[in-house]
Amino acid sequence: MQTRLTSIIIGLVLVLSTGSLVYFTKQPVVLPPDQVSARTDTQPTITQPSEITLTQIAQHSSRTSCWSAINGGVYDLTSWIPNHPGGEKTILSICGIDGSDGYNGQHGGRAKIMTILGGFKIGTFTK
Fold this sequence. Notes:
Blueprint: H1 2-25, H2 33-36, E1 50-52, H3 54-58, E2 61-62, E3 65-70, E4 73-76, H4 88-92, H5 100-107, H6 111-118, E5 121-125
Parallel strand pairs: 1-5
Antiparallel strand pairs: 2-3, 3-4, 4-5
């Protein structure tokens, strides 16, 4: 009886600790305002969705900084370039532009793809 109780307790501890790890690793890291200027990388710290123009998007048209407008949202796809199943060239072709036509032609409204894309959203496209 005690062995079974011990097994149940160990199982609960494992489930709770695993759940905590999953929860905390999915939380975004937001720097306090006094630490924002201390960042050394080139990625923006955006704490709330902002309106981004095509002129701003066009400034991010390379492998090292790739933004694209897709269906009204703006996405920083830089980290996705080497991971895209269709190859790097596909993503590089929509850096710095409104890539809605290319995205819709390839992916349409597929829910899984839209969920992946949503993880890269940095703002709203404004003309």
